[in-house]
Amino acid sequence: MANVQVWTGAEIKALRTAMRLSIREFAAHLGVSERMISKWEAKGSDITPLPVNQAILDTALRMSDPDTKARFKGLTGGAEISGAETIEPIGSSQVRHPMTGSPMVKVDGSIYQAGPSNTPLWVPSYYIDIYLVSNADYAQFVAATGHEPPQHWENGTFPKELANHPVVWVTWKDAAAYAKWAGKTLPTAQQWEKAARGTRGATYPWGDQPTPAKCNVRENGVGATTVVDCYQSGTSPYGVYDMCGNVWEWLDTQSTPGRRELKGGAWTSQFDRAVPSQFNDANETMCDDDTGFRCAAPAEDLERLLHGTE
Description:
Layout: E1 3-4, H1 9-19, H2 23-30, H3 34-43, H4 51-62, H5 66-75, E2 80-81, E3 94-96, E4 103-107, E5 110-114, E6 119-123, E7 126-129, H6 135-145, H7 172-181, H8 189-197, E8 248-256, E9 259-263, E10 281-283, E11 291-292, E12 296-298, H9 299-306
Parallel strand pairs: 1-2, 8-11
Antiparallel strand pairs: 3-4, 4-7, 5-6, 7-12, 8-9, 9-10
Helix pairs in contact: 1-3, 1-5, 2-3
């Protein structure tokens, strides 16, 4: 069976036809303008979309149901887009951040299924911390900057038994200050959710089966935070830990002035509150024993650092 190496307007029209969508519906599905779809289809095989749009189309085909894929192959003479059936590997493209040494994983740019309605959204490539920021990680920041430590640390020092537990009692501003010091950012709500659910839009990081035992939530009766690498069976498609339970995570996304989104649920949360697609927010000054964070970084920025081009 022939492989089409790149999309042209002809394959784009075939995909829209196979999906049985109007130009307006197809444009909304891809996250592009109706005018762009019309332009591609009008020029047929004489136009090739930009690489970012090639990736969007690859993802749209990969996520289509079997009947749509069969119709697409029929409309294109049995051809399929090269790489369209690639399954994203778990925990691939791991690196260590050059400043903090924390392990991060790359999440390639593509569409993912966002929110309770599974709306297709495009997110550019980025890296995200595999683990929550721990007390030991945060202590380096406090020592380097003189930032005020969390209120439960005695004499400015965290309890030794909590070294590898997520830092808590931090406001959004504390989390943002750490991220800036580390040369990172807080993840946006879209970045966080994509890393939790993968491009296929699983309900939970591990899949669609509700399994409270795979995370630290109220039903398990742990009654406190757990070490950041505890729940290996609950990792996301990218190998990221604790995207359900343990602690709520501060995000960069502002919901209203002075309030920021949080995701993931916590050890204090009921399991149904830990679903990654759910919305939650809080005042930036909120500070509690079940709220922490992890960091992210744009792919281009981190790769320049890693390759020594800055």
